[in-house]
Write a structure and sequence with these properties.
single chain, 441 residues, alpha+beta, 11 helices, 5 strands
Length: 441
């Protein structure tokens, strides 16, 4: 009865401390339906935008990027991986459970014994030394920090895809507008050339060249229309929502029309000291450092206390046992492995920093050159527009034929297309520079 009164509370306490399993079935049909129902009016997204201080505003690159950080599966996966790593912190902080052993024995050869049963129980407590639990916790915290930085890195990659998709869509729509205007001008020029050729004022060669120019414009227009048709789908995929989610919103491309100057020193500081992927590798190094400290701490053995009790021939007997591992090998093997892992973590960080340095140099050079080209294209376009205006006044004064005005307008339209191409090239370079820094210009 005494033994029962001891074991029953012990078993009840053990069962009470158990966690309970909760089923969470996964269905392909349900997840597909959930994706189809995603919307930019999602309450969770609105709450997320409020937390990021972007609850109000137009759907421009940065706000859509926040929606991508909320919806896109790459970022969702990174968050799940970070939660998995962070769960290890609780494990690292836990103390070793005590171990209870109970071993009843039966001795049949004791004829005069009060009872042939011998009852013995022991509880073993492990006392960790040299701050091992602290080192484990430091390692887990550093690993969690690295995982959080990788979430930021994935979120930036999502922003980069959103920006690229919006730039392609903006380029396609603007090119459609400009090419439609140029196509109309070519049609007008062909009509005027046809009339002049019939009057013997121009050769058929000029008319043929005008028709070839019109055909090139039509083909370019079809390319732009194709890019515009797929642009919405690409943007929806970049955000992580169905195409229907973009149907009822107005996209704001204004941020893709500015080319701000960028300080070289500021760019280097951001890229080489604050990039999320670089900070993740730095946290990996901190985790490797903590792991090495833990292996050094394991040179000092833990102490195991084993108080026990047995009941033998009507006598209650208590014992206290102490055991520890003899550190004969000094844990040298695991220490050497941990030192090698720390060296590898350092090499990864330095290699990534060198890679970023090269990426940044290329991006800075490309952005500087493309900005100058965009400025030149803008000047040439303004000159062409001014020339067309001058020609228009001369035509109105009767000094030039209307065909000359159409030709000048075609030149101005071609210059506008060239300016647009230069702007898109510069915006592409700006995006590459932002990716090299993982920061907005």
């Amino acid at each position: 009865m005494k033994l029962t009164s001891f074991l029953v509370p012990l078993a009840a306490a053990a069962l009470a401390s158990c966690a309970h399993y909760q089923a969470r079935p996964l269905s392909a049909e349900a997840s597909s339906a959930a994706f189809a129902g995603r919307s930019l009016n999602d309450p969770g997204l609105r709450q997320f935008l409020t937390e990021q201080k972007a609850a109000q505003g137009t759907w421009e690159v940065n706000r859509l990027s926040l929606a991508a950080a909320y919806f896109h599966p790459d970022v969702t996966l990174a968050r799940a991986e970070a939660d998995e790593v962070m769960a290890a912190i609780k494990t690292a902080k836990q103390r070793p459970n005590p171990i209870f052993t109970f071993g009843p024995q039966y001795a049949s050869f004791h004829r005069n014994a009060i009872t042939p049963w011998f009852l013995a129980g022991n509880v073993f407590y492990q006392i960790e030394t040299a701050g091992k639990r602290t080192r484990r916790t430091e390692q887990a915290l550093a690993a969690a920090e690295a995982a959080r930085w990788r979430v930021s890195s994935r979120a930036w990659a999502a922003r980069s895809r959103v920006r690229i998709a919006m730039l392609e869509l903006h380029s396609a729509r603007e090119n459609i507008r400009l090419l439609e205007t140029e196509g109309n001008l070519h049609d007008d020029a062909i009509k005027k050339l046809t009339a002049q050729m019939e009057a013997g004022a121009v050769s058929p060669f000029e008319l043929t060249q005008a028709r070839l120019a019109l055909n090139r414009t039509r083909l370019a227009l079809q390319d732009a229309q194709r890019l515009a048709a797929t642009g919405d789908a690409k943007l929806a995929a970049a955000v992580g929502v169905p195409l229907s989610a973009l149907k009822n919103i107005t996209l704001d491309f204004s941020s893709l029309t500015r080319l701000p100057a960028q300080s070289i020193s500021s760019s280097r500081r951001l890229a080489l000291t604050q990039r999320a992927d670089l900070m993740a590798l730095l946290a990996d190094y901190a985790a490797a450092e903590s792991a090495l400290r833990l292996e050094y701490a394991k040179q000092y053995p833990d102490v195991r206390l084993g108080p026990g009790f047995d009941y033998n021939q009507g006598q209650n007997r208590w014992q206290l046992g102490v055991s520890l591992e003899l550190p004969i090998n000094g844990n040298r093997g695991p220490i050497a492995q941990a030192e090698a892992k720390r060296k590898t973590a350092e090499a990864r960080f330095l290699a990534q920093q060198d890679t970023i340095q090269g990426e940044l140099n290329i991006a800075l050079a490309a952005y500087t050159a493309s900005r100058k080209k965009a400025e030149t294209a803008a000047t040439l376009s303004q000159d062409a527009v001014a020339a067309a205006g001058t020609t228009k006044r001369m035509v109105e004064a009767g000094e030039l034929s209307p065909l000359e005005l159409t030709r000048r307008q075609i030149e101005a339209s071609t210059a506008s297309l060239a300016r647009m191409a230069a702007d898109i090239e510069a915006q592409t370079a700006a995006g590459a520079l932002e990716d090299a820094m993982q920061a907005r210009l």
